[in-house]
Amino acid sequence: MHYNRKPFRKSLSAIFMIAAIVSVAGTSSCYETTIPPRAVNGVMDLRPWDFERMKPVKLDGEWEFHWEKILGPESFRYGMPTHGAEYLTVPGVWNNRRTGDRIIHGDGYATFRLIILTNAATGIRTLKMPVMATSYRIFANGRPLASNGIVSAHPDYAKPGYNPTTASFAMTGTTLELVLHIANFSSDKGGPWNSIYLGTESEITKLRDNRLLYEYILLGGLLVMGLYHLGLFLLRRNERSAFYFGAFCFIIALRLTLTGEFILIRFFPGIDWELEMKVEFLTIYVGLPVFAMFIRSLFPAEMPNIARQLYLITGLFFSLPVLLLPLRVYSHLLAPFHIVSLLAFAHLIFTVCRAAVRKRTDAILVLIGLIILMGTAVNDILDTNLIIRTGYLLPSGLFIFVLLQSFILSRRSSGAFADAVKLADIRQELEIARRIQKSILPASPPFMKGMNMHIFTLPPEGISGDYYDWHILDEQRIGILSADIVGHGVPAAMIASTVKIVFSLVRDRADSPALLLQAMNDMLVERNVSQFITASYSCINLAAGNIVYANAGHPPFLIMPYDASDPIVADAAGRAMGWTNDIRCEQNTLSLRPGDRLVIHTDGIIECRNARGELFGEKRFASCIKEWRNLPAGEFAKRLGARLTAWRKPAGDFEDDITVLIVDLNEGQLGARRPPR
Fold it and tell me: Which domain holds residue 447?
C-alpha cells in the first residue's frame, strides 16, 4: 500500500501540536508555580500567601482527625488546636489507620478540622470542594458551606453523593476554621481522598472553568472520533479496528463524564448514585478487553486467539460483580484489577513491539501511543492508591493515544479508499478484457450434419487463458483447436487474442494438424510472445469416419465409444508452443463411429484441487465421462460442473480456468446407427 507521505507528515505534526496543547491545558491548572505551605498538626499558615496575586492553594497536610465522632463547630475552641488530637493527611483515606487499639476499615464516619492563618481579615474567599468518600458537609467559621449526600453515624441514614461544587464565604478575621464531617458506608475506602482548594472567587471559578473546558474538549473530541469510526464501520463492515476504536472512544467519553468535574451530574443531578458508580466501574472493566480487541484487530498475527479469550474472560469476571453486587463489595476488586491492568499493558506493549520488529504497518506509532497511555495509567493507579500525588493524567494520555490512533485509522482508510479506486479501475479493465475475450471466442457451436458440440467453461464469467475455435473446411470436415495459455487473467486473455489471429492465418493447413500447430508456433516465436501455450488440434472427417490430431503439450482428449466400457485416450507427443522453433508435434489418426463422444479439455479440470490438496485427476474425469455417457451433452456438462464445484467448494474459488468441448457424433455422413442418449 503506497501513500503520499507529505500530507500525512503534516497531519501527524498537527496531531502532536494539538495533543501538546490539550495536555498542557489539562495539567497546568493542577500545579502551582510557587510551592504552598502544608498543614501541620491541624494548622496551616497562609499569612505569606497573597490570594489576590497567587493561584488558589490546596489545603493539603495534617488535619485534626476525630474518629467516629460528628462534632459541630461549637465543640471546638475557635482558632485553638485541640489538645491531644489525632491527625490524618489530606488528601487521604482512613483505611488501615490505627486509632486506639483497633485498625480502621473503610466503613465509618469522622470529623476533620483545620485552622488556617491568613493575612486578611475581610474579603470573599471560595472553597472548591471535590467529591469525597462518600458523603460530607463542611463548615467555615461555624457556618455550613457545602455538602454532598447525607452524613450520618448510622448506615441506614447516611447517603452517598458525588457532585463537585464551590462555596463562597466572607472572612470575619485573620483566622479561618474549617470543620469537615465525612461518612462512608458504601465504598471500600473512606475519607477526603481529593484536595480542597481555597482562593478568591474569581480564581476558583477560573480553576473550575478551565477544568470543565478541558474535559469538554476531551469529551467532544472523543465523541466525534467515536461517531466517525463507528460510522466508518457501518459503511465498511470489514473494518473491525474502526468498530473497536469507536467503542473505546465512547467508553472513555462516558468515564470522563463520571470523573473529574462530573459533567454527567451537572446535566442529570438526580441520577442514582449506585447506578453512577456501576457505570463508572464498568467503563474500566469493559474498556480493557475492548482496547485489547482493538490492538488485535490492528495486528492479528501477533496476538493469539487464547490471549483474546483471556481478555474477554477477564472483562466478564470483573464486570459481573458490578452488575450483581453493591459498591461496598465490588469496589474491593479495583486493586486486583490494577495489577491485572499492568500485566495487560505489558502484554499489549510486547504484542505491538513484536509487530514493530516484524515491520507491520503503523506499529511504531501504535507503540508510541501505547507507552504514553501506559505511563499515564500507571501514574493514575499510583495516585489513586495515594502513593504519589501528581494528579490524574490518564485523560491527557488517552487523548494523545486517541489522536494517534485516529491518524493511523484515517491513513488506513485513505489507503483503502485509494485501493478501492484502483480496484474499480482494475474491474473496469477486467470488464473490457472480458468483453474482448468474449468477442474473440466463437459465439455459438458450429452446425454440421452428423455432429453436435456443447461448450462448458469454469469460471463461467471469469477472464480465462483458455481459447478454443474451429474451422469448417467443407460440409464433411471440421478442424477444432483447444489452447491453454499458462496463467490466467488479463495477460493470458490478451495472448489468447494473438492465438486467434495466428490461427486465422494458418487455416490453409487445417487438414494437417501437426503442420498447423508448427506454423502457429513459428508465428508466435517470431512475434516474441515468450509464453508457454499448450494446444490440441483435431480434424474430424465425417465422410471418412476418422479424426486426425496433434498435440503441443496439451492434455490428450478422450473418445468415449458408444460400445466400449472405457474412454480412449487420444495422446500424441509434442512440445508447448511459444518458446522454441521446433515443437516436434506427432500426428495420429483414430476411427470414429456414430454414437461416439469426443471430450476435448484443458488441464484446469484434472488439476482442480479440493481442500485437502487432492487433484481431481484423469481417473475421476474419465469415470465421469463413462458414468454419464448416455446423457445429452448439455446435461453431461451440467453434472460435470456440479461435481467440480462440490469437489472445489471447501477450498474456495477455482485456481485455474476450465474449458471442455463435448462433441457427439450422430446420424449423417457417418451412417444411421446411433444409440439413444
Answer: 443-665
Cell numbers linked to 583: 515443437
Cα gap 94→110, rounded to integer Å: 9
Mean pLDDT throughout 148-171? 94
Count CB atoms within 10 A of the CB of residue 230: 17
Whole-number pLDDT of residue 385: 66
| Judgement on whether residues 550 and 615 belong to the same structural domain of the protein | yes
Q: Which residues lie closer than 8 Å to 345 by C-beta, 6 or more apart?
A: 370, 373, 374, 377
483, 336: one domain: no
Give me the pLDDT at residue 115, please: 96
Helix (H) or strand (E) holding 179: strand 175-184
| CA 548 to chain centroid | 61
Q: Are residues 349 and 477 in the same domain?
A: no
Q: In the chain, what is the straight-line distance between the N-terminal and C-terminal CA atoms, in Å?
A: 56
Contact (CB, 8 A) for 557 and 600: yes
Q: Provide mean pLDDT across the span 112-119.
A: 95
Q: Show Cβ contacts of residue 135 under 8 Å, excluding neighbours closer than 6 positions.
A: 147, 148, 149, 150, 151, 158, 159, 160, 161, 182, 183, 184
Q: What is the count of structural domains for the chain?
A: 3
* pLDDT tier, 472 (very low <50, low <70, confident <90, very high otherwise): very high
Within this chain, do residues 235 and 301 fall inside the same structural domain, yes or no? yes
C-beta neighbour count of 44 within 10 angstroms: 27
| pLDDT tens string 62-74 | 999 999 999 999 9
Beta pairing class for 124-129 and 165-170: antiparallel
Reply yes or no on whether the pLDDT at 586 is more than 60.
yes
* Domain identity same for 159 and 273: no
Position 31 scores a pLDDT of 43
The CATH number covering residue 245 comes to 1.20.1070
Residue 161 domain-assigned? yes
Determine, yes or no, domain membership for 167: yes
426 falls within a domain? no
**Same domain as 655, residue 544:** yes
79 within domain boundaries:
yes
Residue 118 and residue 169: Cα distance in Å, rounded? 14
- Angle, CA of 249, 255 and 260, to the nearest 5°: 125
* Domain match, 309 and 338 both: yes
> Taking the complete model, does pTM exceed 0.90, yes or no?
no
CATH number at residue 541: 3.60.40.10
Q: Which of 626, 627, 607, 604 is nearest to 617 (CA)?
A: 607
Q: Which of 230, 285, 278, 276 has its CA nearest to residue 257?
A: 276
Distances (CA, A) of 234 to 228, 237, 240: 10, 6, 10
Q: Which three cell numbers stand for residue 599?
A: 471430450
Tell me what pLDDT residue 462 has.
56
What CATH number is attached to the domain comprising 65? 2.60.120.260
CA dist 517 and 479 (Å) reads 12
CB-CB neighbours of 90 under 10 Å: 25
Residue type (1 letter), 53: R
Q: Do 368 and 480 sit in the same domain of this protein?
A: no
Interhelix angle 273-298/305-324, rounded to 10 degrees, is 180
